[in-house]
Design goal:
By secondary structure, the protein is an alpha/beta fold. The protein is 30% helix and 17% strand. Strand 12, helix 17 and strand 13 form a beta-alpha-beta unit. Helix 4 runs antiparallel to helix 13 and helix 9 packs across helix 10. The longest helix has 24 residues.
Length: 701
Amino acid sequence: MDRKTARKRAQELVGRMTLEEKASQLRYDAPAIERLGIPAYNWWNEALHGVARAGTATMFPQAIGLAAAFDEGLMEEVGRCIAQEGRAKYNEQSARGDRDIYKGLTFWSPNVNIFRDPRWGRGHETYGEDPTLTSRLAVGFIKGVQGEGEYLQAAACAKHLAAHSGPEAQRHGFDAQVSPKDLEETYLPAFEACVKEGRVEAVMGAYNRVNGEACCASPFLQEKLREEWGFEGHFVSDCGAIKDFHENHGVTGRPEESVKLALENGCDVNCGCTYQKILNAVEEGILEERYVTESCVRLFTTRFLLGMFDKTEYDGLGQLDVETGEHLALSQRAAQESMVLLKNSGLLPLDLDRLGVIGVIGPNADSRAALVGNYHGTASRYITVLEGIQDAAGEAGVRVLYSQGCHLFAQAAESLSAGEYIDRLAEARAVAEHSDVVVLVVGLDETLEGEEGDAGNAYASGDKRDLHLPAAQEKLMETVLGCGKPVVVVNMTGSAVDLRYAQEKAGAVLQAWYPGPRGGRALADILFGRVSPSGKLPVTFYRGLDDLPEFTDYGMEGRTYRFYKGEPLYPFGYGLTYGGCRAVEAACAGAGPDALRLRVTVRNDGRETEDVLQVYVKDEDSSCAPVNPVLAGFRRVRLGRGEARVVEVPLPGRCFTTVDEAGVRALRGKRFTFYAGFSQPDGRSAQLCGTAPVEVEVQLP
């Protein structure tokens, strides 16, 4: 159904409603209007990396892990799977009268905020620190979710507009001061791509203010959305954000004024309870009914586009379409693509034919929580790292020893234990000393990095205080790496942590993120060489916080790979494989900045592997350009041993533009240097990879 038809039907239906009925439909938990044949509908559903909080569904790696795959096609497949399962669950549940929260077809995903600071607890919900990577992956995800049928298969929602990335503890009253340049260059591009290219059906506003305006009632942001970008869908508040107007931001004095501010500035759905005051505001004469009517029309336009009042091509989906073999295989493939090999001194892949005993140590080795991240659903089966190794080793007759090593963050695994951090160390030493190789699995989980209100811990409302692992784990790492055995350190976090000691002492270091319920099997496939690792870092791993700006500073200078002037531990875009891929030469083809493409000859001198070809650009003329080359495009490729191939990477016209201090994006330079290879064109990447990208000079007429 086209939007024009859906809106016309919505206008007709809403025109038959009373003011009270229209107001009721602007709540996230909209009640039924039986006289009009309208069933109850709850707008709140989550699908960050699988249908969440609604029972069994296929779960994928956390969003930051999906980002590490650098794979647009994969994101579309993941989105399509999520929508099919969401529609199947909706069909089954609504047929049985269950229209509760998390049971609808409006998914409040993806999160396209920029992961600008490694301390932010919700950063693992995003696609990393780069606007181009975030845009490309988000558009793929949205297209997969919404589909190409007569009706939307489900409705995606880009969140949280805008400039939202901590601190979590301050988000309800925080005012992010952002320059016009940083808004246009960093914080808004992904939302623009979601609207213009993805045709996303919904956008969610953030809790915070931006330059004084509350994000869920911002004239500036609404003008961007609806006037400049042509957004035609509906806008939803984050949960409780409208209440923050009067309780925390102080931009209004009471709930009725908050209702007026929100509705007059385009917020259609209130996740929260403040819109219960709509009738009061209209009766007082401070809110015109036409704003209520328009929001209601927008919402019913979405419901008609979803086919909620018609028969659709999705009506046959049901319980047998949830967690299918095909979907589980996709989840495992996503986990394999997401894992990033940070160091390998030749230890990996492990040869099971040459091993007698493998030691598995660490608080995340047998943790289900470390598999799933946050905003997760329920899998019917979980395979932890320990279980994945046990399964693979058992087939080869290799023994596996295990020790938890320490608690995830507490001083002792057992509360009555004497001393600090030592009640599992002796066992960990024993396991290490009796093993031929040790897999040490450290990291965090959603209890240590997450959302304010969801993370009940001492780590500042889900944010990290620093880049250190908990002290118990640092003590364990020091102990195990001091045992003289070859050690693979596996880090399961959703963000950058300090891995300097592991980089110095371990034989191999692997970033596994929160890889999903089948993550243990995917990791075992990589450890034992069944699959070559191919993920790339979507964030910079810094050596520490000393040279980063304050967490509350939303200026981009000195942040992320585009503006950071120091030497990182592991750069954005970095990741090793078991192959030997390199770019041999590159040339530019096409005419004009809107039709150029880079033709790159790539070669693999190692074993068969997938890898990610990356293209970065530096404007050599414009003083407005970021200090470092920036990502212009990427392509995931598979190369056999000794295989050479020419790969084309389109160069969007946008990559030739720069943004000035007034926030104006324009084509300013004529001379550009493009770098094509399997990493960034920085010195640290060249040092770690042993190879560097090739360069191409482009002169525009």
